[in-house]
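#struct-pred

JT: dropping the chains for the assembly here, can someone run the whole complex?
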Amino acid sequence: MLRNFLENVRKNSPLIHCITNYVTVNDVANVLLACGASPIMSDDAAEVEEITSICGGLNMNIGTLNKDTIASMFLAGKKAKELGHKILLDPVGAGASRLRTETAAKLMEEIRFDVIRGNVSEIKTLAHGSGNTKGVDADMAEEITGQTLDQAVIFVKELSRRTGSVIVITGAMDLVSDSRKCYVIRNGRPEMSKITGTGCQLSALITAFITANPEHILEASAAAVGMMGLAGEIGWSRMQPGEGNASYRTRIINAIDQMDEELLRKGANYEMR
Amino acid sequence: MLRNFLENVRKNSPLIHCITNYVTVNDVANVLLACGASPIMSDDAAEVEEITSICGGLNMNIGTLNKDTIASMFLAGKKAKELGHKILLDPVGAGASRLRTETAAKLMEEIRFDVIRGNVSEIKTLAHGSGNTKGVDADMAEEITGQTLDQAVIFVKELSRRTGSVIVITGAMDLVSDSRKCYVIRNGRPEMSKITGTGCQLSALITAFITANPEHILEASAAAVGMMGLAGEIGWSRMQPGEGNASYRTRIINAIDQMDEELLRKGANYEMR
Amino acid sequence: MLRNFLENVRKNSPLIHCITNYVTVNDVANVLLACGASPIMSDDAAEVEEITSICGGLNMNIGTLNKDTIASMFLAGKKAKELGHKILLDPVGAGASRLRTETAAKLMEEIRFDVIRGNVSEIKTLAHGSGNTKGVDADMAEEITGQTLDQAVIFVKELSRRTGSVIVITGAMDLVSDSRKCYVIRNGRPEMSKITGTGCQLSALITAFITANPEHILEASAAAVGMMGLAGEIGWSRMQPGEGNASYRTRIINAIDQMDEELLRKGANYEMR
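RK: done, full complex below.
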């Protein structure tokens, strides 16, 4: 699945507009540079439409949303859509507050995202909030395991069908799905959850991949997910005695910077459902 | 003093709501993960009460305060108090502007903090601003040394009595005090002051420790202070040729990640006054 | 050119007020500490005048400007000017949106900056926006090379004459110019552009250097530019197998922390035009 998607990012160097949280924003910028893309962060209503116009993709992350940046998200999202740019939503903390849940739901109503990426709990919240067919998703467990995988695949395909977006659920196993096909990806390491922002970084990477590979949204998203997981494995293998989560963070971004198609092909661990 | 406090953080994994500055926020998030807690950053008035409700502790830091986040601090603080959550105030820069001094003073008037942590100058500012007994604190020097320690211990106990908060003053020596007992902690290294945010990180750690050890506010705060200092010593011992403050920052968070009760017991350097 | 400028920063430890973007702010703070200065970040209109009053220099960066922080920039800039403080403008993204271009132009109209630092494209935008003599600058290429250097030197001297500011253009070659003399600096490495914020860091360093060496704005700026480039070379020489842009970022700040006048004198690579 992974052939050439990374190469296209490095070749085209897409400019990615990020409206993102201030917690992980520096890592998001550095990981975009590591994969060959370029970041622009901008969240003021007076300029986001103009900024997004000169970019190729838009990465929207509600991790530290506020009344001003929410307004900017709608403006930028509509403008980007109008221009045919690729757009991703990372609904950080959807379900943790009404503001987050409702903002994500409203964004999904007014803008069709190319990709939506979150953890199980965030994506389940969106599924509830964006429709009234609670049947399937209500049955999905909080962690996707071998036993709940079949259910989860049905859920994620159905959600993709309803939303028109590729859905990415990350966790111990990662699912990347449109309404027909679902990649199940088993790269990564549990220790990645001890670093703040690996999810935010992945969302930025996916945005870069789909912007540079606009004809292959599903596959390019899966490639980005596989690459992030593989970077987590490579980074971990380089850890020295006494190192902990702060060094691991650095080593993962390093691994993205040093990644190539050959490594990706060898390291990718996935199946199709 | 240190027995089991860290273990309880790792076991209970408390969720800590941080309203904090955008300078050091990433390190604050990673250090909370390193010690076994989980961070949520949120500062919009429309959601802070709801966010703090799902957390166990609240870490408030005025390092880059603004009119919007100040309003959120009052909302979150009152809600957290109402729910019996543990709350810490880090009055970054109190004394540097009226806005900071008055915001800290007003927060202290309306919310009884479990812990207040700052450097000598910040804590002295609060002492002046929050009462009219200037006698003792006016006599306290800017740096606590062997010669001024007795005075400082009297000052910090008195301030704790007046405020009802455990007071933590960090510097060359650290004091952690309630109205009756004062820990004097001699861990840490002077080079820690060449890294931005070690104070902010410590405040987050204390919040995690008191949230996971709610019956032992004083001792758990002292344990967190000792752990941060010890991490500074361990991190420093691992520095390689050519490394400077940027690597030191990473090595300190690594040391928190790798810390255990055994290391803490062996490394803690404190006395009681 | 470099003699003693760094030493003066380390000796005087100037306090630098930064109104800067939230993407690279942590690195900006750590690099200021690394060179011996002290950072204060503050951007609320209610306190910026007071905060800037206790500082020696003001570093203004429009990387993530918004309506609130723009207002603060004018307040802080005028106050700092009134007090005779050194002031630098980093017009991040000027040309990418009207908001950025117009904010930079208006700041330049109302405040005479001691130094303005940007890349070729940003500085060209300012030249167009701040006057109507398009002749020279319209001829300047996007990248300064051996072939376009003569033109670029004429352009930058002319812009310095018109604005009254020392102009710093960074890229493959760096120019540091007043209306009469132009330093052409050839330190640095192309890989520095794969790290977010090396430009922001440099602007902070220049602010520290001119604040600690107020009688030598041109030379102190050139010394800071040379030091940043040299740190990029030293950091690169220390890279280990498997390391990428995230480690490089750390190694550059380390190199600033470990820099001394001796290293600077030996490593500086510049000529005067």
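JT: nice. Chain C touches chain A at residues 21-24, 26-27, 63-67, 93, 96-100, 194-197, 242-247, 249-250 (CB under 8 Å). Strands of chain C lie at 15-19, 38-41, 57-61, 86-90, 115-119, 166-170, 174-177, 182-185, 270-272.
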